[in-house]
Specification:
About 30% of the residues lie in helices and about 25% in strands. It has helices at about 50-60, 60-65, 85-90, 110-120, 125-135, 150-165, 180-200, 210-215, 235-240, 240-245, 315-325, 345-350, 370-380, 385-400, 415-425, 445-460, 470-475, and strands spanning about 5-15, 25-35, 40-45, 65-75, 80, 90-95, 170-175, 200-205, 220-225, 225-230, 260-265, 270-280, 295-300, 305-310, 330-335, 340, 355, 430-435, 465, 480-485, 490-495. A hairpin with a 2-residue loop joins β9 and β10 (about 225-230). α4 (about 110-120) runs parallel beside α6 (about 150-165). The model is unreliable at about 500-520 (pLDDT under 50). Bound molecules: adenosine-5'-triphosphate (2 copies). One adenosine-5'-triphosphate binds next to β2, α1 and α15.
Length: about 525
Amino acid sequence: MADIITVMNLGWRYAAPGGGGEPIQGLRDASCYVQQGALAGVIGPTGSGKSTLVKALAGIIPHCTNGSLNGYVRIADMNVKSTTVSDLSLRVGYVGQDPRAQLTSPTVAEEIAFPLENRGVEPDEIEARVDDVLAMLHIEDLRERDTATLSTGEMERVAIGAAIAGEPDVLIVDEPASLLDEEGYEDLVNVIDVMRRRTRMTAVLVEQDTRFLAQRADAVFLMVNGEIIRRTTADIFTRERSLLESVGVIVSDQDATPLVIESDEPDAAGNPAVVFNHVHARYADSPPSEAPQLDDVAFAVQQGDFVAITGGNGSGKSTLTRLINAELRPDRGQIVVNGVDVASRTPVQMAQQVAVVDQHPADMFCAQSVREEIGFGPRALGVDDDEVARRVNEMVRLFDLYDVEDMPAGALSSGEQRAVALACALVMHAPVLVLDEPAAGLDHRLKSRLLNTVARMNQEGTTVIIATEDADLIQRYCSHAARLDQGRLVSYGRVRANGRRFLAPPPVQGVRAASNGKGVAR
Ligand SMILES: Nc1ncnc2c1ncn2[C@@H]1O[C@H](COP(=O)(O)OP(=O)(O)OP(=O)(O)O)[C@@H](O)[C@H]1O
Ligand SMILES: Nc1ncnc2c1ncn2[C@@H]1O[C@H](COP(=O)(O)OP(=O)(O)OP(=O)(O)O)[C@@H](O)[C@H]1O
């Protein structure tokens, strides 16, 4: 079968951020081929060049990014460098790691119709194809929604819908598993199967979670440090497991054990850190005819608990986390943090009590370098310079940010940006830590470092609330879980540990020892 993608001796250097300093190597001498109709996977640790490679396939590199290119990429008969982005977009459907950046139309239906209009498809056929795409991705109910007001997973589904609507020759999706819930991922897999049968579409997926690629990929490219170090098949997941683990790629061949949440009697004598008291929330632009985004949510997180907020895409997880630091106000009910009614506080006032990392870390960056970014919060709270420097050093070591500590955080890979955002929260030493999908897009090594550190802080007394759909993570680390479904709390209680135990690292010298006594460490 003919190759549809040819990458030949491709090198890419990002222009130095801000115009000064050395350019940053994104790719070195990368070569690979993908046959028409194949499913190819790109894997590798955080910052290894995966996104850079697929951006070069979609033409974002070199057309929309500053830097210098060697070698070439061909898609079918087109040389990417000499083809315009708009011509490429007719043949290549691309979904990057931040779907928000891609959605430009006012409504979901218009977003999906746009590539069809570009191809000059007749209006009646556009209607039918939009309906088909919405049905394949099970997002018919989002049809008339404003694209800017969707949850992150909903945005990802719409971006995938827009990418496939025009029946591209090649579909590229960068880390879908980090944003889609299980059903959403199944829908994506199904769409890829249908399109491969219908039009012999080729699919390229960048993934940290390799479960699907291990079962189905025809070609696998392993990247390390900007190079493709293996061009192989799904055999790599059995034959070269130790190599993959040594570079930080998760090799998981079993499905996660289903999460069991045991119903708990409310602890009347407990010492609550965060109380959700019959909370209702509705976004200002949500029509009154629709159900509220949070509907009578009531539970209490005790001090020292490690709580997961779980549920599918759009169930209200991020909305709930945004209430804790007053970023969002409930329209009814009350949130109490360490005895203080959040209604009486601003987000800035809440910063001493609660450190929050949301799903879009890049939004919060404002400093010139990673070091300044991490030190910004403690400095604003009046922590002295020596202590700020000590804490920043600890975070740089923890997340292995030595190579990028002097770069602006905005110029890092998505996983590196997430690591910086998490460092900015951990460095605050707040009594309550709230993390929205913290491990999404981190490689195996960074994910376990992060979670082991958070578990250690939890043993030292920090209350942790983490929005995630990762059942394995919840069973390993969390003491309790709250499950949301369409804005309603459907269960809250202890997590059954399924016999797995988290091995806690020894407490850091001079820091208060474990005090919650709840057996959170599993
Ligand atoms: N600004 C907004 N205006 C109107 N509706 C919104 C807004 N933001 C979110 N929603 C809706 O609120 C609901 C809950 O969204 P939320 O982001 O809390 O879900 P989530 O569980 O975090 O989802 P995901 O897993 O996709 O991140 C969704 O139906 C979403 O479409
Ligand atoms: N816009 C940019 N400007 C400068 N350097 C960049 C830019 N984007 C990425 N880089 C650098 O290029 C390297 C590769 O980044 P890339 O985003 O391709 O990695 P990745 O493997 O996709 O990582 P992740 O899993 O974290 O998404 C990283 O070291 C990163 O810091």
